[in-house]
Amino acid sequence: MKWMAQTIIFFILGVVAFFPAGAAAQKAPQADSFGLSSLIRYAIRHNPALRITRQNIEIENQGLKAAQADRMPRIDVTGGYTRYRYPAPLTPIVISSLPLFATDIPDFEKNVYDGFATFSVPLFKGGRLLRGVTIAGLKKSMAQDFHTRNLHELIYNVTAVYYKLAQLDQLLGACEAQVKGLEAHRRDVESFLKAGTAPKLDLFKADTELAAAIERRIQTQNSIANTRELLRSLIGMDEPGEFTIAFEDTPTIHGETAKADLERALAGRPDYKAALSKVKMIEERVVVARGKRLPDIYGAGDYGGKAGDSFAFKENWSLGVRLMLPVFDFGRIGAEIDRERLELMNAKEEERALRLTIARELKEAQTAIVNADERIIVSEKAVSSAREQVRIEDLRYRSGDNTSTDVINAEAALIRSRSDHYQARFDRHVAVAFLKKAIGDMDIPSDTAINGDTSRAPVTGKITVPTKSTTEETK
Hints:
Elements: H1 2-27, H2 36-46, H3 48-69, E1 74-89, E2 108-124, H4 128-195, H5 200-235, H6 262-268, H7 270-291, E3 296-307, E4 314-324, H8 332-399, H9 404-439, H10 447-451, H11 467-474
Antiparallel strand pairs: 1-2, 2-3, 3-4
Helix pairs in contact: 2-4, 3-4, 4-5, 4-7, 4-9, 4-11, 7-8, 8-9
């Protein structure tokens, strides 16, 4: 019995020791981060504007089905009850011969119950049925193009905000490096002031520049916080809390880019495709409006019966062809035709304006890339020179060969050159993304990536960046 009690005690202690560890392991947040590709996939799944355009495709698809159904026969079932003041015949009075036999006289009832199955099929409507299907198909195509356009816009915006965060993070590292440099310079000034080799004015200058550098760092941190909230709204993240962003290593800045080919852009831009579809759709609407001047022909029939209080239904049926020809409508059809013609003229002008806009965007994107490449080369040299200038001016000040103003000016030149360099890199990334959007050749994740499990829950943490780039910038 003693060994059984010991066994139970050890078992209970083992369970107690195991479960808290397991619970702690479950409560620990799972380390996860969003790169550019994962941000785009998340935005594709959760952005509300993109979801709306995706639903619009299904809406237009249902409209296409309705237009196709308008060409098919229609069968309805009707029934009712009618109370007459005088007895009414249940079936028409038929006089086939004389004298009149009793079998030719129908039943008369005041309370009449009827039930019929009606049948109708359109035979000719001036081509409006076929063209209605064509118009519905064009509307669906336009909805698909609008969805693709919004998708390209979303990818471009997420890319721009992502690289803006990367720029601000690098700028924050440069601001921190400036603060550290000015703090070190202030300590040098303070020690020289105690030794009597520096005026107190140098200490005031150092304090002023240090406060300005700290304020610049705070402003950069606020800009990062605001940009993160913009990104959260853009990707459609409803959950509160922070999410981690990992800035991936970017490719070579001076890499090859797509050529700004106008014909390729016109063939690939979804908004231009939608504009062409709109022109075709309104052309069809003009023909439909003209078709209203033609007659409508349709076949109709019904089968059923009527009964009185005895519910002895009398069978009856009918079958025929109906024609309706518009003769006079106070110019309504002509006004509709003129309206559609004017709409067609506007649609053609919109297509022309969009073509000019695409040509301008291609030129602007190509120019922005070339300009950013030149600025990157110049700013790289400026950063290298400014960093060396700071080192030299600091050594000269410690040896007494210059003033505190020279060191402060060198620090200001370094932060300015770094800011220009980061801005040039950001402009280059955005210009490349803008060129892809202008051509209509955005890097869209595959269907497997979009439909996969990319709905990551936000995890608590701060922005993480590659330690290599941050370390290099703070040196």
